[in-house]
Each structure stands twice: as structure tokens, then as C-alpha cells.
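Lab notebook, bench 4. Still working through the backlog of constructs that have no structural model yet. Next entry is a single chain of 368 residues. Request: give me the C-alpha cells for it.
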Amino acid sequence: MQLEVNSQFLDLPGAVEATGPDAGVAAHYGNPLAEQRSLKAGKSVVDLTNNPVIEVSGVDRLSWLESMTSQRLTTLKPGQSAEALLLGPTGRIDHVLKLIEDGSSIWILLENSELEPVFSWLNSMRFMLRVEVVDRTDSFATIGWFEVAGVDPGLQVASPHGVELTWRDPWNEVQTGGYQYSEADAEQYRQWTWRESLVERSLLSHLDHREFSGTLAAEALRIAAWRPRFATEVDEKSIPHELDWLRSAVHLTKGCYRGQETVAKVHNLGHPPRRLVLLQLDGSENLMPTLGAEVMLDDKVVGSVTSVANHFELGPIALAVVKRNTAPDVPLRVSVEGAWIPATQEIIVPVGAGATAPAPRLPRLGAR
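Model written out:
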């Protein structure tokens, strides 16, 4: 079930409503490429008011959430944020939680379609613990923006308990207890300074003076930063290793949680069956693939497109999940409207990801 929100910012000049997971807010306001530049420079914000917000209060909230998720949360201080995964018994990604701790409550920011399943799951797991789970979507809305030095986002960020509620995306550096499979240097990630702030819905009219960029602009910058998203990159088979999500949302030594055995086994001894890649698409035919488009190697399907955008600097790009053993240096093809366009891989998760545990040394015959 998706949250039905009639965003007031769809009334802004040039607004065109998004489809798919971002339905209910603007895809763009007339010039998607210019909106990317503005957003990256910190001059505009993104309407995410279609996304739900859950508040979890009570003295057991941090230890309770830590026991169920992939992340260490009991060390969070007021004002700090984190990302955590809810995994199935076999390590598949069920849900992704964006978390903000304010000293009295922990706030969970979700994708549009995730309110009902996450809210129901959390309430089913309360048992006798001192926690309360409340849907606060009617009171608080999410606004996305990029943090740029010296630029004020111009938001009246909500602070119901005296601490501003801003989620700072941890993707731009490997988190404590995490692990990066990508061999890229830190500069590739450092540019991703994405933030999501909660604003009281009653005060949204104060943003009428702000410049807005649409979700297409945010998506293009996300794809260029290799940042996976639950609504697009995750399917019923996804495990964190395939998307390099161990770097920001998994603490490898924090203790037991559902799905931990798969996380540990694949990381230490095995390899993920698939891997995330960035595709540089041939734009000469002015064709763009749709989500789910087949990725081909010769005459074999090796994966599918998960996100696609026309980037203001890089041109047509896409994220795709392909079979792990797909050779990283071979040309691929992507299905577009009954035709095929060439695509070049940019490696995110390498073929050899996983199997990090050193092989045991076997004693030589005759050794004493």
C-alpha cells in the first residue's frame, strides 16, 4: 500500500507528477537537468512529503531495534542518525530503515510503500518491552537536500524534543563495523552529502519561497553516486552484499539478528550471486531503458536495469544488477523499445566480492 499524499508543491509552476515509487510528488518542474545542478549546489530542495514517518519511543527503543536489525543502534547519541536493514531468515532484504535518534524517541523514515508492512512488523514484535510505535506521517513531512558548505537549506527542521530531526545519509563513508567491496576511492562517495529533514506539515507553507528540484534530479545524482535504494534496487532475492550495502547499513560484529548467518557466511566464505554495476548507456539514439529492462551479454540475459537517469554531466546512466560472473570488461546490451543499445560497465561490486576470511593453512606432510 502506498501513502496517498496530495503534495501542495505540485501546484508550483511547471510541476509534473512522478510515477512509480515517487508518485504523489513532482518528478520535475520543467527543467530536470538544471534542477540537478541546483540541487547538487545546495540551492534547491526535493519534495518527499509522500514518504511516511514512524516514531518509536520508550526506554527500550534502541536495544529493541538493534536486536532486530543489521545495525548497532545502542550507541546512537541525540542528533545522530543511521541506516539499518530488516532481513528475512535467509538474509534477504525485507525493509530499509532510515533512523534519527533525538534522546527521547527514534524516528524512522521510510519509502512510500513501506508504512503498512513496517508498522505492522514493529508492533508485532513489541512483546513486553517498553516501546511505543506511532505513525506520525500526518504531523511530519520529509524534505530532501544536499549539504553544501556555506549554503543554508532554509528549512524549519522539526525538533519536538529539542533536537533537529535530520537524517544524514551514511553512504558517503564506510560506517563503523561496515565493509566496502567497491575498490573506488573515497572521493567517489564523498560527494554524496544527501540529507532528509522532517518538517511539521503545518509549516510546509513556509517553504513556498524555496527553489524546488524534482525527484528525477535526486535520482540522477543518486545513481551517479552508486547509492542503492530499496524501492528500485531491491527485489525478493536481494542480499546486502550484492548492493555493497555492508558499507552503510550492516555492522558485522554487533551480535545476533535475523539473517545474520547469511550475512556472515557470504561475507566470510562465499560470494554474492549477483552484483551492482553502473551502466554508461549509448545515448546516440536518444533511447532510455525502462526499469526492469533486460541486460544482455551476447544472446544471454545476465541482469536487469534497476534505476535509470539522464545525468547533467554523465549523460544516460543506469544502475543494474547482473550475475556475479559476468565478465567486467565485456560490452553489454540493454533492451529498449524492441531495440538494443550498447552499455559499458562501471564496476561497483567486483566479481570477487565476499570470501574475506583467510584460508586456513594446512600443515605440510612430515611437519612436526
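Notes after review: The chain has a mean pLDDT of 94. The first strand starts at residue 16 and ends at 17. Flag for follow-up if needed.
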